[in-house]
Amino acid sequence: MGRLLSIVERGGPRADEVAKLAHPHVGQAHVIGITGPPGAGKSTLVGKLVAEAENAGKRPAVLAVDPSSPLTGGAILGDRVRIDANNLEAFVRSVATRGHSGGLALSVPGSVRVFDAAGFDPVIVETVGVGQVEVDVTATADTTVVVANPGTGDAVQANKAGLLEVADLFVVNKSDHPGATDVRRDLELMLDLSHVSGAEEIAGGRAPIVMTNSLDGDGIGELWTEIADHHQRLIDSDRLVGRRAHRLQTEVRSRLLTALEQATDALIADRFDATQQTIGESAAPSELSEKLLAELLSPAPPQTEGAAEPGA
Amino acid sequence: MVEDAAETPLRIVLAKIGFDGHDRGLRVVARILRDAGCEVIYLGLRQTTDNIVAVAEQEDADAIGLSMHNAGHMTLAPKMVEALRAADMDIPVVVGGIIPDDDIEPLRQAGVAAILGPGASAEEVGRTVRDVVNARA
Predict the structure, then answer these.
(1) Residue from B57, B59, B91 whose CB has the most chain A CBs within 10 Å, to mutate
(2) Per-residue pLDDT tens for B93-111?
(3) Which of A21, A211, A239, A286 has its CA 20 to 30 A from that of A28?
């Protein structure tokens, strides 16, 4: 299993082969995304959730993502320090982003697929510590949990677009800290406005807010119940099917974008100078890109051999 | 120091076993390996050999680094090697920390792939890890 995940993480033809074999067997696992800013307590919370799942007789798996260095490609994957503290049986895989932004690694959908096909349920995906816009996890998870912290801003912050919009569930962690109830109030106000603006209807309901203390476990039982309820509501309302269709589409889109990006890089390496000479020194960026785009989209696209790293 | 893009980063599990609270050195090594382009799976303090075996399997580790500062190395390092063998896992174990010269050869005999002392440079740490992984492959 560990090696299989390495193949998926490496990408390329072998990863595609794994994806093809696994795909017919997926769809059983409830995929739970845990996201939020660095230091919010995501890993500790994941450890506690896994313990809840194990107590409920389930067989959970975790994908814990941490950032790779943009300079050296190295990474310190430290989520296990918190997750393992709970003496779990679960399968935990630490994942480095390997150059991908958006909060996850490109390989995460493929790794979720492998866990799902192997009978793990739920599959919990913990993102890197995110800011405001890294919402990749929503394209992977059935249920997205956004973890907030005391002291992270006021009601205006809570009303900004981005991460907070995509939550199916909010957790205000470190509930023993001063300011935790303020965060809850700001989130409630934000959700009130979602109700007014109609965003709530599109989302399919008001996201519940759960106060937790992931150190002593306070509120974890309630969170587990809310996560299970959300899953049930998705199933009952047929939204799960829609979400998963959307997920498939998103993954295909991301693969196409990766291929296009590689083709673009190859084209620029091959043809940039020649194109510039053809048009002349004074060629504007728009002229150059127009000309190159025509080549990129021509019936015989340039080869991108060997560089494939799709998100399977 | 920049990795060849086509090369998959090495995955190294770093841990301290048993009652040994000195993790400063382990953090330094984690940082050195990160900057050498490795993916470090950091376990930190108070690990057991059984747990490290389970982690190495789940994480598909290329090597295991143990930091030892409490004179337990003659017991714990061979126990780590044995636990991996028992699990049929061919993963090199590197020991770092305070290891007396007289203990180096016995540790090697016990199957420890490499020993790094306090004077080891960042370059030496990175190279040693790479070498022991390549020696296995």
Answers:
(1) B59
(2) 999 999 999 999 999 999 9
(3) A211
